[in-house]
Amino acid sequence: MVDPLQEIDEWGPEKVVCVSDSRTGMRGVLVIDNTARGTAKGGTRMAPTVTVGEIARLARVMTWKWAAVDLFHGGAKAGIVADPGALDKEAVVRAFARRLADQIPASYVAGLDMGITEHDAAIIQDELSDRGAAVGVPEALGGVPYDQLGVTGHGVAEAALAALERTGRPVSGARIAVQGFGAVGAAAAARLDELGARLVALSTTAGSVHDPGGLDVPAWLAAHREIGDECVAEAPPAQQIPHGSELEVDCDVLIPAARQDVIDEQVAARIKADLIVEGANLPTLPGARALLDERGVQLVPDFIANAGGAIAAGFAMDARHSAFRPEPDRILAEVASRTRRNTLLVLETAASSGVLPHAAALELAKDRVRTAMRLRGRLPAATCA
Q1: What's the CATH number where 50 sits?
Q2: What pLDDT does residue 136 have?
C-alpha cells in the first residue's frame, strides 16, 4: 500500500483522517488534499479493496479537476473499506458519517463514487441531519439529478467529440470501444451513439464483447439496466472476447472508463485506437502515456475528460441550501461547454509546447491552484515565481 504521508508535497495533503467502528466493522478514510480554492469536495467510494494510498491519489486528482474546470472547490476524496452489496451497507454508511461528523460538512462535502449511490448520499444527510453534508441525493429529496443525467459520461463523449473535430474527423461513423459499462461508460456510449458513432466493443466486470459491425447501444443499455454486469453472458459466443482485450480492438476512439492503472506499457503497445479519452480516473500509467505519444496516439487526460461530474457537482454544491434547482438542460450544456473548451485548450497547449497532454493539463491546474495558494499566503515567494 502506498503511504500518502510519504508523498506530502507543496500541494498537500492537508489532512488524512482514518476512522473505524467496532460495532459495524466499518473502516474508512478521508483525505483532504488542497483547499486553497475552496471547500473540499470529492466523491466517497466503497469497495473491499479501498486503501489510504488509493484515496490520497484520487483526492489529488480532485484538486486538479476542480482547478482545471475553474470551479472554486478544493480537492478531497473519502473511502469506505466494505462490500457495497452487503446487507448491512446502510449501517456502515451511517457509522462512517458519524465518525466524520466533525469533518462533514465543515471541511468536506460527501458525494457519489464507486459503490456509493444517491440513496447512500441521502443516508449521510439523514445521519448528520444536515442538507449540506452531501450532494448527489435523489431529486425527490431536493437533490440535483446529475447522476441520472449521466453527466460524467456526457462530458467524456463531448471531450471525444472535441478531440475528433480538432483533427477534422467526424464523430459520425467513428468506431468506439468502452471499457466499463457502468455509469460513466454507458452514458458516454449513449451520447456518442446519439451523435452517430458506432460502439464496437464494451466490457463489464463480468466480461467483454466485440462486434466490428457495431453493437446495438439502446439494447445493451436496457440489458445492463435489467441484468447488470452479467448481461455480457447473454451475448452470442461470436461476440465474446477475452476480458481486457476490449482495450486492444481495432477502433478509432478508446474510452477506458473502469478502474485506474489498466493501461501499462505492454497494453499501450497493442492499442489500435488513435484517440484515448480517459473516462476513469488514472487509467494510464506514465510510461504508457509516453509510449502512446511516441506512437502518435492522442490522449485526453482524465481530469479534463471526466470532469462532468465535478461541473454538475458545482451546481449541486450551490443548490444544497436553496429552494431552486438548476434545469437539467442547463447542467448538460455547461458540462459540454466547459469540457469541450478545456479539451481543446489542453490539446492545443500540448501540441504547441511539445509536452504530453497530461503535463499540459496538470500545468494549467497547478497555475490556478498556485495562484490561490499565493493569495492565501500558503506558498513562499520563491515557489510562486
Answers
A1: 3.40.50.10860
A2: 83
All cell numbers assigned to 141: 429529496
Across the range 223-244, mean pLDDT stands at: 95
Assign 266 to helix, strand or coil: helix
DSSP per-residue codes, 138-184: -GGGT---HHHHTHHHHHHHHHHHHHHHHTT--STT-EEEEE--SHH
Dihedrals phi, psi of 153, to nearest 5 degrees: -65, -35
Neighbours of 213 (CB within 10 A): 6
Q: Check whether residue 250 and residue 165 sit in a common domain.
A: yes
217: part of which helix (H) or strand (E)? helix 217-227
Active-site choice (77, 89, 272, 366): 77
Cell of 371: 495562484
Strand 26-34 vs strand 74-81: parallel, antiparallel, or unpaired? antiparallel
| Grid cell digits, residue 81 | 473499506
Burial bucket for residue 383 (CB in 10 Å: 0-12, 13-18, 19+) = exposed
**Active-site residue flag, 15:** no
Host domain of residue 56: 4-62+76-143
At position 317, the amino acid (one-letter code) is: M
Instruction: Encode pLDDT of 187-213 as tens digits.
Output: 999 999 999 999 999 999 999 999 999
Integer angstrom CA distances of residue 333 from 66, 171, 312, 337: 18, 18, 10, 6
Per-residue pLDDT band for 385 (boundaries 50, 70, 90) equals very low
Cell numbers found for residue 34: 488542497
State the cell numbers at 165: 473535430
**Over the Cα atoms of the chain, what is R_g?**
20
| Cα–Cα distance for residue pair 213/122, rounded to 1 Å | 42
pLDDT given for residue 380 in this prediction: 46
**SS3 of 287, please?**
helix
Query: Do 173 and 315 belong to one domain?
Result: yes
* CB of 302 closer than 8 Å to CB of 260: no
Instruction: Look up the CATH number of the domain holding residue 237.
Output: 3.40.50.720
Q: How many domains in the chain? A: 2
| pLDDT for residue 5 is more than 80 | no
Give me the half-sphere count of Cα atoms (radius 13 Å) on the Cβ side of residue 95.
21
Instruction: Give every CB contact of residue 75 below 8 A, 6+ residues apart in sequence.
Output: 12, 32, 33, 34, 35, 40, 42, 59, 60, 61, 62, 63, 64, 65, 66
